[in-house]
Every structure is written in C-alpha cells, then in structure tokens.
Design goal:
Layout lengths: L2 E8 L20 E2 L3 E2 L2 H9 L4 E6 L3 H8 L14 E6 L11 H6 L2 H7 L1 E8 L2 E3 L3 H10 L4 E7 L9 E5 L5 E6 L8 E10 H12 L8 H11 L5 E4 L4 E3 L3 H11 L34 E2 L2 E2 L4 E2 L2 E3 L2 E2 L4 E2 L4 E3 L2 E2 L4 E2 L4 E3 L1 E3 L4 E2 L4 E3 L6 E3 L4 E2 L4
Parallel strand pairs: 1-4, 1-6, 4-5, 8-12, 14-17, 15-18, 16-19, 17-20, 18-21, 19-22, 20-23, 21-24, 22-25, 23-26, 24-27, 25-28
Antiparallel strand pairs: 2-3, 6-11, 7-13, 8-11, 9-10
Bound molecules: adenosine-5'-triphosphate.
Amino acid sequence: MKNNCIAMLLAGGEGRRLSPLTSKQAKPAVPFGGHYRIIDFPLSNCVNSGINTIGVLTQYEAESLHEHIGEGEAWKLPRTDDNGISMLPSYNVGVDEYLGTADAIFKNIDYVDAHEPENVLILSGDHIYHMDYREMLDFHVNSSTSATISVMPVPWEEAHRFGVMSKDDQSRITEFAEKPAKPASNLASMGIYLFKWSFLKKYLIDDAKNPKSSHDFGKDVIPKMLAGTESLHAFEFKGYWRDVGTIHSLWEAHMDLLSNSPDWQLMNEEWPMYTRDLRAKIGSLKPQAKQGKNCMIHDDCSLEGTAESSVIFNGTEIGRNAKIKDSVIMPNVKIGRNVIIERAIIGEGAIIKDGAVIKGSTSEITVVAPNEIVAAKP
Ligand code: ATP
C-alpha cells in the first residue's frame, strides 16, 4: 500500500549523559512533565500530524519502552498490516545490535519498503516540543528536495552539543558539523530529518558497506549527502524545542514548564498529548495553590509539606514539614518528614527518609537514582 510519509523513531541509544536516570531505563522512557515519558512527545506529534505509521527502533533497555507503548492503543494507533506503531528492537531483525542511528534504519529497510513510502521522517526520542510535521513536509515537497533537516538557533554556548549548520538565502545547507568543539554557527539540527526514501536508501546501503563509518546520521550520512550533488534543505522551526539529553537540560525543560511562557504550553487543547495512562487529561496537572507555589503537581499525589517552583509527578508522597524547591520529583517517590530538597531531580520510586537533605548548586543539579534510598546524615 502506498503511504506518503512514515516515521522512524530512534529510541535505542544508551543515554549515558542522563545517567543515573537511564541506568535501567531507555532515555525516551524517562518521565517528563508530571505525567508523561519523553517519547510521548514525538509520538503525539506524529498522531496530531496525521502520520499513522511509526516504527520505533529500540535496543538499550528496550523493555521499558515496549512496556510503555504496548500495542499503541493509547496513541490510537494499534498495529495493523498497513499502519500503527511497530516496535522494532534490534533482536527482531536478527542482529546483535544497531551500530548507530543510520545502521538502525538500514537494518529495517524491509519494514520501510513494505510501506512503500514516498518520504521517511526520522525522529529522535529525546526532545520536548510540539510540532506539526505536515509543515515540514509541505516545505520539503515545495522545495523539491530529497532531504530536509529541521533547525533552530540555540544559545552559542550550547551549540557544541548539536549538529550545527550554515544555510544560504534559498535555505540550502552549505556546511554541517556534528558536535563541533568550536561551532561556526548556532543554527542547530533538531535531529528531525525528512528524506525521500529512494534517496535515503541509497545512502544507507553505501554507508553500511563502509568499514570506517560509525553508521550515524550526524557523523556519517549527512556529511556524505552534503558532499554529493543534490542540495539538502534546512527547515527553520519557530516554536519551543528542547533536547533533554543531559541532566541539566532535563531539569531546565521542567523549569520551562513553570515559566508560563506564551510560546510553550504543555497542556494545549489544539495539540493533545497522549500517554499510556489515559487519565492524563488536560487539567489534571493544575497547580495546587494551597501548598505549592508556582508548581505543577499531579492530582494523584499527597503533599503534606510545601513545594515551590517544582514539578511533582503522579503517585508521590511528601511528608509533613518537608520543603521542596526548584526540583523535579518523578513518579511514586516517597519523601519523609522534615526533608529538604533543592535543585534536584529525584528518580522514579526513590525513597527519601525523614530529615534527609538533598541540595544541588547553581552549576550542578543533584540527582537521586530511581529506587535509591536516601537516609538523613547522622
Ligand atoms: P548519550 O550520548 O547520552 O549516550 P544516546 O546514546 O541516546 O545518548 P544520542 O546521540 O542522544 O545518543 O541519540 C539520539 C537519538 O537516537 C536518541 O533518541 C537515541 O535513543 C537514538 N539512538 C542512538 N543510538 C541508537 C542506536 N544505535 N539505535 C537506535 N537508536 C539510537
């Protein structure tokens, strides 16, 4: 069956920079925003953009993602022969591992071919944003290009964390460097690529034959395409977008939720968010004025202490006289009495005993690993 555009969602990386939150969980399965998991963002974007065939490439701690996505019902995309969400773990295609992001797509060429798409949208599983991919697809088709990369300017001091590029006044990409030590531009790749399938397939087959390649889009395939004869185009995205691949950026993206910026509303009736637990409805994350100042507190948690400028997820209990500030408390955390938590991320299921003090600094956010038990210092 002919399908104009399908999505391939890369979700198999180790997420080392987000350690210890990723010690037993894939990065895209890490909780975000009071009720969601990071992968809910690209998945909801696909659903809202009318893309109903999605392959999810898993590898590292794949089980955490398979459990979350299940049969795809929460996204109203149960798998059928023609569409829906398909989990594509590396063990399924009979290989030990996906060697890199490009190799993961290469090893699923048969899956893509079976859908006969004109275009393939490649997405990362570690970004927070609402985006209508149809606008990028329109740009791609109107530019008559084979490859479009979604871009946006980032602060100069952060540019070294991204693939950065320069473009001409026709939006053609003229230079590209993956995570350069000294960036020449602050126009960052958002890790969202749209390719004509016939074009991408040719480059993936060539890349697979190259023993020197690390089989990565940013490091290998994009530079090779840029050196070829066809131009690549940059699609400039205007909305809110954050890479949450590091502890600091994950914390900052949570603080952004509290900033009440008109540019970024997690709860947006025009752009519904889907997650496994269908109770995540608009309105269920209302700040509780009584004990929480400038907070996002899930309905389903009990707060006997006080919280300020924090995001507190479902199932969390916060004991009497505990004080939480500038922090992210992930699901099902138990916090005892007289606990002080500041500038920290507390991983899912952690237990913080009575009287414990957990404080980060201006430059470093303290992290408590999922299920860790923290006692008060004697
Ligand atoms: P880190 O660099 O902190 O270890 P990472 O391994 O996830 O993180 P990224 O460069 O952030 O690497 O990966 C970008 C996206 O591609 C993520 O969504 C990640 O899950 C995915 N990804 C990375 N490597 C693979 C792979 N071998 N197979 C499938 N997906 C991958």
